[in-house]
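Researcher: Next sequence.
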Amino acid sequence: MFEQVFKSLDDIMFQEPGCNSELDYAEQSSWMLFLKYLDDMENERALEAQMTGKTYQPVFEAQYRWSEWAAPKTTEGKPDLDRTRIGSDLVDFVKRMFGELPELFKDEDELRTLWSDPDTRKALLERLAERGYDGIVLMHIKDAINAQDSDIYDVLGHIAYARNMMTRAHRADAGKRKIGFTYDDKIAGFLDFVLGHYVETGVESLDRSQLPDYLKLKYGTLAEGGTALGGMQQVIDAYIGFQKQLYSPGN
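Model: Next structure:
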């Protein structure tokens, strides 16, 4: 049953100008499926909140919910064809929906600069959350575009500037080569330890707050870690500095 439905959708989308293969619209298809999934998830959470006497705040405003713009219904519960967005109307709507994302950074270079520093990255993530793109939403977006192993930075770059995706492992490998040329063996070894956690858990592991835990985990105490690596200030500078290399344009 579903195979025939997707075949019909495929035939329709393939008629769009500029489409030479399924790869030309695979990304758009993934986004549409994600938005439908998100709407179903929100409906489920709203019902759970209602049953437990709690209040649920949806991720997206009502006008951006799938049930409002993609499949609106009349008061009788029937499809409302007058309110369903199609063609250029749909294109303009989606642009408005996701167009606010690049407003948080003027271009790709600024995104990279903000993301390369733990403090400005944290501030950007807070601003994203205020716009409705909190950690849960970003996680679902990663799932929708098959980017579970990628950095959120690459997901944002993909959405805003159509950049190619990269896994955290690939980014870490490129970063390790640069670290080896920049820092002594002890610092490089510690940063390699940090990168292992980054590959495993994501960019959250590069937050400033994680540094004390890494030192304790590897050296026992903060004092012993600082001594082993040539001083605490040198450790802090390296921890912040290597992240600029991790997100440098060559990676």
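Model: Residues 118 and 207 are 6 Å apart (CA to CA). The chain has a mean pLDDT of 81.
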